């Protein structure tokens, strides 16, 4: 089992920045690829970014490329999502997830956090 706890969400204005964190406990964090997903009200959960276990490979969805950066610190068992130039359409609950390899589909992740709310006002 891997327990994941997100933090860092909040209410910001368009153009601001936020950094989300995901603290992991339980099994060895560095064994897992990690991903960030988000779900806006009335919409399905969507992929945001993912990172390989080593941090050597990352992938972002097109809508956040150039604005969001995923990273991890395996020594601290923590995953990050640096979000810059935030837009109102980035408003959602953001979830971190752990899986066996870097994937875009949410079905490839076995463990999920409870989520943290990000609200971007215009």
Describe the structure using short key phrases.
122 residues, seven-stranded mixed β-sheet, 0% helix, 53% strand
Quick overview of this protein structure:
The chain has 122 residues and is mainly β.
Q: Tell me the strand percentage band.
A: over 45%
Alpha-beta classification: mainly beta
Alpha-carbon Rg, integer: 13 Å
What portion of residues is helical? under 10%
Distance between the termini: 40 Å
Helices and strands, in order, run as: EEEEEEEEEEE
By DSSP, the count of extended strands is 11
Q: Poorly predicted ranges (pLDDT <50, ≥5 residues)?
A: none
Mean pLDDT: 96
Give the overall silhouette.
globular
Main sheet specs: 7 strands, mixed
What does this structure look like?
0% of the residues lie in helices and 53% in strands. By secondary structure, the chain is mostly beta strands. The strands form two sheets. Strands 2, 4, 5, 6, 9, 10 and 11 form a seven-stranded mixed β-sheet that branches. Strands 1-3-8-7 form a four-stranded antiparallel β-sheet, with no helix packed on it. It starts with a strand and ends with a strand. The mean pLDDT is 96.
Give the topology.
Elements: E1 2-7, E2 10-13, E3 18-26, E4 33-39, E5 46-51, E6 58-60, E7 68-73, E8 78-83, E9 92-99, E10 109-112, E11 116-121
Parallel strand pairs: 2-11
Antiparallel strand pairs: 1-3, 3-8, 4-5, 4-9, 5-6, 7-8, 9-10, 9-11
């Amino acid at each position: 089992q891997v327990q994941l706890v997100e933090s860092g969400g909040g209410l910001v204005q368009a153009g601001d920045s936020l950094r989300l964190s995901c603290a992991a406990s339980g099994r060895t964090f560095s064994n897992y690829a990690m991903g960030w997903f988000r779900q806006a009200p009335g919409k399905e959960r969507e992929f945001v970014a993912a990172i390989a276990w080593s941090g050597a490979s990352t992938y972002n969805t097109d809508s956040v490329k150039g604005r969001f950066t995923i990273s991890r610190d395996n020594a601290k068992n923590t995953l990050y999502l640096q979000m810059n130039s935030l837009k109102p359409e980035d408003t959602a609950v953001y979830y971190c997830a752990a899986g066996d390899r870097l994937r875009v589909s949410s079905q490839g992740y076995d463990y999920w956090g409870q989520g943290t709310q990000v609200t971007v006002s215009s």
